[in-house]
Write a structure and sequence with these properties.
The complex is a heterodimer. By secondary structure, chain A is mainly beta. Chain A contains no helices and 11 strands. Helices cover 0% and strands 48% of the residues of chain A. Chain B is mainly beta. Classes of the chains: A mainly beta, B mainly beta. The A-B interface holds A 4, 33, 35, 40-45, 48, 55-56, 91, 98-101, 103-109 and B 4, 6, 31-32, 34, 36, 42-46, 49, 51, 89, 93-95, 97-106.
């Protein structure tokens, strides 16, 4: 089966610029996650969708980050304006459902460098 | 909320030796515990998982043990090989609320040939 697709793979922007990342989950997966992984750290959940609804965005810096999953399939994550500390790998993951025993599959990630 | 601690942060072993990585968690209601392997520049991939109704699970050279009373679980890799070198993350998922995954901080394993 096809995996989770993310684009772009790499992005370099200047601080205060805007950037958007795209994710296409595995077909049929209702739950989609966006994680931020800073170098040397574990993935930190930014936002979790169940179909097209947000179920957890408690750690999303809402003053600059936004995400949507309008049709319950693809999702975009936007940062506006970017800060130096936003430099990280942004991982998208999906799972069949949000029940406790379902595996989360990760995409390759987008490596963001803010200069 | 849930807090996951992972130790050690780095681990070097000789090829053929065993490696053990341990995670502790705070929410006693958590009942799903996956382990992910992340090679340099690649995506995290699930290597083994365990549910709370099981104390131990083994898959070839990899095993995971769970102690629910003490709220910790461990990854055991036996007969390590150079290709086991990677960063390993534990994760915890609680059965309530959003079922979100909380990840540990990672262990960089180096297998020395």
């Amino acid at each position: 089966e096809a995996g989770v697709a993310q684009s772009p793979r790499y992005k370099i922007i200047e601080k205060r610029q805007s950037v958007a990342f795209w994710c296409n989950p595995i077909s049929g997966h209702a739950t989609l996650y966006w994680y931020q992984q800073i170098l040397g750290q574990g993935p930190k959940l930014l936002i979790q969708f169940q179909n097209n609804g947000v179920v957890d965005d408690s750690q999303l810096p809402k003053d600059r980050f936004s995400a949507e999953r309008l049709k319950g399939v693809d999702s975009t994550l936007k940062i506006q304006p970017a800060k130096l500390e936003d430099s990280a790998v942004y991982l998208c993951a999906s799972s069949l459902t949000s029940s406790v025993n379902t595996e989360a599959f990760f995409g390759q990630g987008t490596r963001l460098t803010v200069v | 909320g849930e807090n996951v601690e992972q130790h050690p942060s780095t681990l070097s072993v000789q090829e053929g030796d065993s490696a053990v990585i341990k995670c502790t968690y705070s929410d006693s209601a958590s009942n799903y515990f996956p382990w992910y392997k992340q090679e340099l520049g690649k995506r995290p991939q699930l290597i083994i998982d365990i549910r709370s109704n099981v104390g131990e699970k083994k898959d070839q050279r990899i095993a995971v043990t769970l102690n629910k009373t003490a709220k910790h679980f461990s990854l055991h890799i036996t007969e390590t090989q150079p290709e086991d070198s990677a960063v390993y993350f534990c994760a915890v998922r609680a059965p309530s609320g959003t079922y979100k995954y909380i990840f540990g901080t990672g262990t960089r394993l180096k297998v020395l040939a």
